[in-house]
Design brief:
heterodimer; A: Immunoglobulin-like; three-stranded antiparallel sheet; 21 helices; elongated; B: alpha/beta; 12 helices; globular
Chain lengths: 535, 425
């Protein structure tokens, strides 16, 4: 048995050795093949590809420190490879330093680090000496030099960055290879250099738009940027595209394309959006198509987009336009209700709010917005201490809500109980309305807090996360104690004063208001509100 | 008669000599240079504070643990590592309960490694329910404690200076540990309330500083402060303090800190807490590079603003890194089980530490991961948890060895590059 085991072990070891020998031999063959390519090639593209292959081979096993020896041997075999040898030597030493960092081999990192750094600097400077910014290797070396100095946080970092941008600008004039410009810009974004990357992106965009690129390709590029989350760049390409079609297309066609673009950027729960860019495009649509070009859907989209970017005055105007032009719209009551809510708690205009809630209350039909409008009328009356009038509204609400609308009915019953028991309005709610509507509280203008929901158009029973942030005065590394006074319709979750956010869901359709007052130890910090449309 | 005249003459001369003799310079003092810069002088030589906050709480204990009396004497092993790194100062927030062991720690660090001590006092900041700086009995109690502390340790050769308070000024803003008194309560304007609290607090600190100077001529007194907040009140009320010791967490750059200080309250500064944690709350893993990146950047600026450096304001005397070793109790102090766990949950947020600011709720600061050294949960050395040196330890060791060389080298590289770049153009 023992003998058998020993034999097995021996056999496995031999196999292992053979496998290793085979691997080494295979790698030697590959390297020999690449060496031949390097020696024989005269085309810079082929040469670059061969060096990239060598790089892949060594880098995949973190053998950074071994590569320079091999590529130097190539340099000895063929003249004119100095720039490649220097660049790839610098790259491998740079990678080795990074590898030491990642694996926390601090002893080698700190004992030999300076020598490695000198070597990187020296080799890259050699590349600069023998190449010009019209050559890719020069650009790559400058990029590496910048990355290296940035990692070292030394004083040449800024200089190397502006040199790089300058050289890429020069390189762009002599090449049709635009992609490299974008690649470097992407790399700069990754290194946290957003501003400089913008310069390169602009060059890239100008290059492609000045070329004979077709409109479809241009919009394709814009869509790609959008899909990558690079909205700024996507918008820049769309701007160029719009500039083009403004000159060439008839108005109708132009407007139809602008509508397609606005739909990409307008507010929606899922995916990327940019409400500001969307509104800019809405304005263009209005400029070319007039107000009449906006159908019901487009008007609602614009109003909703403005509401979500907290431009309440403009949102109220657009909802108003929708109400005026499309009185038969299925969105009509929702729009009336939103005008009321945004007027009251966004624009501090209680009279306008009442006017619109009354419009809803006067309707004979029943829907979530009419019921909510009655609640708001009751609430405002109760807050103004006209309890008889408030009771009237709440009773009317309960009458209308007898075939459903449980959430609103519960809220109204709670208010009625306060009136019947001669109790004050719920503290959280009263504080919120005081801060929202009393003139002396105009400084509580939602600038010191943030309130948002993960979804604004959830389905019934769909979970959504409501979160808030308070912008407090400095308190160092001690977190200041803050209380959160939640009110309104928070769905199935009733958050406590300690919770800055919560997860909830709504059982019924309608526009739900979430109110918040944030209290710090020094007093009230701010108030905020948000609207969620459960569908 | 002649004899009497002679005695009178001798007395007269002695009186003249005594009157004209200058008071000797204190052992440690701050020199205001002709160019307006400040320099800390220790034994007649300029001294740059290369400090570290030291609170070696072992795994499984919390802040109540009296490490000063630990028989394993952690400061002996730590002091050696500190000395090798180049640290010359430790900062204690408050002395331990037993004066004998406190003296021993100060002496051991100084005698064995030449490391000096900045001794602090909380000034009752953690008193329950709040520090009543507006109340005379509270003030008297704290004043007595501080004076006793100074009397106990002022003759220790290792003492560098005293620091009064830490981030106590935030209580004047009312956000943390808010306090008040009848007079403040009568004032309806919140801004005026803050100013009233500020004046009370900084006058109180100044009174203590004055009393310290009466009994201890040899050591400066620092006003501990969170950021520069409230120093506009200190300028009026704290004229007897020698320097400010500010806690600054601004990430990579201190921005206009030194210039602002010069404009609002022209006194020297020691950054009494600065640094970065070594945990990426976004990627949820230790990140030593991130910590080293911030620390190196901060120390470059500290050196830029030392005396006689043309590029800075010349009002910085040095800095103190927060902190020497990780403290595993900090995340959730009431939970004793948590003291055995190296928590990765964050307690506070700071956008200046931008690498991990995208962590949920922007909570990116990991209080248990600020150490230059990590503690090993598995291995012990010399009776204490083995110290695992983080990258920052090495980075600052190299920087302190020759900060001038590092800067010079960078400049040379810049010049070389400018001369060589793109010759082929």
């Amino acid at each position: 048995m023992k003998k058998y085991t020993l034999r097995t072990c021996l056999a496995v070891s031999i196999l292992f050795l053979l496998f290793n020998c085979f691997s080494f031999a295979q790698e030697d063959n590959t390297l020999a093949g690449i060496s031949n390519k390097v020696i024989e090639s005269v085309d810079p593209v082929e040469l670059s590809a061969a060096f990239e292959q060598i790089k892949e081979l060594y880098f995949k096993d973190n053998r950074y420190i071994e590569m320079p020896e091999f590529i130097k041997s190539l340099g000895q075999k063929k003249k004119g490879l100095e720039a490649y040898v220097s660049y790839y030597t610098a790259l491998s030493v740079f990678k080795h330093l990074k590898y030491l960092e990642e694996t926390q081999k601090w002893d080698e990192y700190f004992s030999d680090g300076d020598n490695y750094r000198d070597q990187i600097d020296e080799e890259l400077n050699k590349v600069m000496q023998v190449t010009s910014p019209k050559e890719l290797l020069n650009i790559q070396s400058q990029l590496l030099l910048y990355e290296f100095h940035k990692g070292d946080q030394d004083r040449v970092t800024d200089q190397t960055l502006s040199d790089l941008v300058k050289s890429v600008t020069e390189y762009a004039q002599s090449t049709n290879d635009y992609k490299i410009i974008k690649d470097i810009a992407d790399k700069l974004v990754g290194l946290g250099e957003k501003n400089k990357s913008k310069e390169l992106y602009r060059i890239y965009i100008n290059k492609i738009t000045d070329s004979d690129i077709k409109d479809e390709e241009l919009t394709g590029i814009a869509k790609e940027f959008f899909a990558d989350g690079n909205l700024e760049l996507s918008e820049a390409v769309y701007d160029k595209y719009i500039e083009r079609i403004e000159k060439t297309l008839p108005k109708e066609e132009l407007v139809s394309i602008l509508i397609k673009i606005v739909k990409i950027f307008a507010y929606k729960d899922e995916g990327y959006k940019d409400s500001v860019y969307a509104e800019k495009t809405f304005k263009k649509i209005e400029e070319y198509g007039g107000k009449d070009i906006f159908d019901e859907e487009l008007l609602y989209m614009r109003a909703f987009n403005l509401e979500k970017s907290r431009e309440y005055k403009d949102a109220v105007n657009v909802y108003g336009e929708l109400v005026e032009r499309f009185p038969e719209s299925p969105r009509i009551d929702q729009s009336l209700y939103k005008i009321g809510m945004l007027s009251a708690y966004g624009n501090r205009d209680i009279d306008k709010a009442r006017e619109y809630f009354e419009k809803l209350a006067s309707k004979d039909i029943v829907n979530p917005w009419i019921v909510s409008g009655l609640y708001q009328l009751g609430l405002l009356s109760q807050w103004q201490e006209n309890t008889a009038k408030a009771k009237e509204y709440y009773d009317k609400l309960l009458e209308k809500a007898k075939y459903g609308f449980v959430e609103m009915a519960e809220l109204a019953k709670g208010r009625l109980a306060e009136i019947d028991d001669v109790k004050p309005l719920d503290y959280n709610l009263k504080t919120f309305i005081d801060l929202s509507l009393k003139n002396e509280n105009a400084n509580f203008n939602m600038s010191k807090s943030e309130l948002k929901s993960s979804l604004y158009s959830p389905k019934k029973e769909q979970e959504l996360n409501v979160s808030s942030a308070a912008y407090l005065a400095e308190s160092g590394c001690m977190q200041a104690a803050v209380q959160y006074l939640w009110s309104g319709n928070t769905g199935k979750k009733k958050p406590t004063i300690e919770e800055p956010g919560f997860t909830t869901s709504y059982a019924e359709e309608g526009t739900k208001e979430i109110n918040l007052v944030i209290v710090a130890s020094s007093g009230i910090l701010d108030r905020n509100f948000d609207l969620v449309d459960a569908e | 008669m002649k004899k009497s005249l002679l005695i009178l003459f001798v007395l007269f001369i002695s009186f003249i000599l005594m009157g004209s003799a200058k008071k000797p310079k204190p052992g440690i003092f701050i020199k205001h240079l002709k160019n307006g810069h400040f320099q800390l002088i220790v034994n007649k030589k300029p001294y740059v504070v290369k400090g570290v906050c030291y609170n070696p709480i072992p795994i499984g204990k919390n802040h109540e643990y009296d490490w000063w009396s630990d028989p394993a004497k952690p400061w002996i092993a730590d002091g050696k590592l500190m000395q090798e790194m180049g640290i010359n100062t430790v900062r204690f927030y408050n002395p331990g309960p037993n004066p004998e062991t406190v003296r021993q720690v100060i002496r051991d660090l100084y005698n064995m490694y030449g490391i000096r001590t900045i001794m602090g006092h909380w000034l009752g900041f953690w008193e329950f329910p709040c520090p009543l700086y507006g109340d005379k009995p509270f003030q008297d109690k704290i004043r007595k404690e501080v004076i006793e502390m100074v009397a106990l340790y002022k003759d220790e050769p290792g003492i560098l200076f005293w620091t009064l308070g830490n981030e106590n000024n935030y209580s004047c803003l009312g956000q943390v540990h808010p306090w008040s008194n009848d007079e403040i309560d009568k004032e309806p304007d919140l801004q005026k309330q803050r100013a009233m609290r500020g004046r009370i607090y900084y006058s109180f600190v100044n009174d203590i500083a004055k009393e310290i100077h009466k009994i201890d001529y040899n050591h400066p007194v620092a006003l501990g402060n969170g950021e520069l907040i409230g120093l506009e009140w200190a300028k009026e009320a704290s004229t007897d303090i020698d320097l400010v010791a500010c806690i600054i967490y601004r990430g990579k750059t201190f921005g206009n800190l030194f210039k602002s200080l010069k404009a609002t309250f022209d006194v020297p500064i020691v950054l009494s807490e600065a640094g970065a944690d070594a945990y990426d709350a976004f990627l949820k893993k230790e990140d030593q590079n991130m910590q080293a990146f911030f620390l190196e950047a901060q120390w470059r600026q500290i050196y830029d603003n030392l005396a006689n450096n043309k590029e800075g304001e010349g009002n910085c005397l040095g800095g103190i890194i927060f902190e020497w070793s990780d403290e595993w109790w900090k995340h959730n102090d009431p939970d004793a089980q948590g003291w055995l766990v190296h928590d990765t949950e964050s307690n506070w947020t700071n956008g200046s530490y931008y690498f991990d600011i995208k962590a949920p709720g922007n909570m990116n600061m990991n209080e248990e991961w600020f150490g230059l050294v990590a503690l090993s949960a598995d291995e012990k050395e010399a009776g204490i948890e083995k110290r695992i040196l983080r990258k920052s330890y090495y980075v600052l060791r190299e920087f302190w060895k020759d900060p001038v060389k590092a800067e010079k080298k960078a400049k040379e590289a810049a010049n070389l590059k400018r001369n060589k770049t793109n010759k082929k153009k």
